[in-house]
């Protein structure tokens, strides 16, 4: 059975034969100020990161009830947790009393989140479960953590930093949803190693993952030994892109029946989900 990935391999083989990647009609020039202007950066945080749906976790990160991860995006501390009801939710990682983080752990499993400041507690569905010295507060106007719009699809968890937003993942991701489904993210298991690299601007990281021009040079002793440089395919889904990378085995693919192709040997794939996530890995 052929898949969209077979089409990518055919196109990559054609690009290798032609000696060129997929090309736009004209070159694009980007001024250096796009990466260095602090005012533009703040506008990008406000108009992109705090408005559009963001991929904040994989389902395997929070597979069982009580499992959680935390991270900060665009200055917002987030807590992603699977509730006892099996639903994944995203909250601001901030106690409703004085705003302290209810957990400093990067990941874990718990039945309660207890703010270290005054020991207010919350359950895995974000509800306020306990208040120390409750009688001294009178009427409380807080019933739980601030919940953000959140939805789980194709093994990934998406959320908006705008608590009043309405998620429309079909409209936002379009065909990228079907492409992400090919990765079988639901079948993954978390490997808890985090590497942090300094990056002065989010676009630098995005550029690196969709750039096939540097592979054989910057990475010549690692993935460059497997890849053929700068013969990429690009499939655009609105602001998202799936990038195909040719391997040493790509050129001979068309010499054998498609149902015998080892797709992971014939190509490498990167899915860039705008604006904050690139997924590089095997398929199918």
Provide the descriptors you would attach to this structure in a database record.
single chain; four-stranded antiparallel beta sheet; 15 strands; elongated; alpha+beta; five-stranded antiparallel beta sheet; 284 residues
Tell me about this structure:
The chain is α+β, with helices and mostly antiparallel strands. It contains eight helices and 15 strands. The strands form four sheets. The protein has a five-stranded antiparallel β-sheet, with no helix packed on it. 28% of the residues are buried.
Q: Unreliable stretches, pLDDT < 50, 5 or more residues?
A: none
Report the major sheet: 5 strands, antiparallel
Class per helix and strand makeup:
alpha+beta
Give me the number of helical elements: 8
Average predicted confidence as pLDDT: 93
Instruction: Please state the CA-atom Rg, rounded to the nearest Å.
Output: 22 Å
Number of strands: 15
| Strand order in space, largest sheet | 5-2-3-4-9
């Amino acid at each position: 059975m052929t898949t969209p990935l077979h089409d990518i391999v055919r196109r990559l083989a054609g690009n290798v034969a032609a000696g060129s990647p997929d090309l736009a009609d004209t070159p694009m020039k980007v001024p250096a100020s796009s990466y260095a202007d602090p005012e533009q950066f703040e506008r990008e945080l406000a108009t992109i990161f705090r408005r559009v749906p963001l991929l904040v976790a994989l389902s395997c990160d929070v597979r069982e009830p009580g499992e959680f991860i935390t991270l900060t995006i665009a200055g917002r501390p987030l807590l992603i947790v699977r509730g006892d009801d099996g639903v994944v939710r995203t909250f601001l990682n901030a106690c409703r009393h004085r705003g302290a983080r209810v957990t400093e752990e990067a990941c874990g499993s718990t039945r309660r989140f207890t703010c270290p400041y005054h020991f207010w507690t919350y359950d895995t569905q974000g509800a306020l479960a306990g208040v120390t010295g409750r009688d001294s507060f009178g009427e409380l106007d807080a019933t739980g953590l601030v919940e953000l719009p959140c939805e789980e699809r194709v093994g990934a968890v998406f959320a908006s930093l705008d608590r009043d937003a309405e998620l429309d993942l079909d409209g936002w991701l379009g065909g990228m949803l079907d492409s992400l489904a090919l990765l079988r993210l639901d079948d993954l298991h978390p490997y808890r190693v985090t590497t942090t690299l300094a990056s002065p601007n989010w676009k630098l990281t995005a550029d690196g993952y969709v750039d096939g021009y540097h592979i054989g040079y910057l990475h010549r002793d690692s993935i460059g030994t497997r890849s053929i440089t700068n013969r990429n395919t690009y499939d655009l889904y609105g602001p998202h892109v799936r990038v195909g990378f040719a391997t040493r085995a790509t050129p001979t693919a068309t010499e054998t029946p498609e149902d015998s192709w080892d797709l992971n040997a014939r190509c490498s794939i990167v899915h860039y989900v705008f604006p904050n996530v690139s997924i590089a890995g095997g398929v199918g």
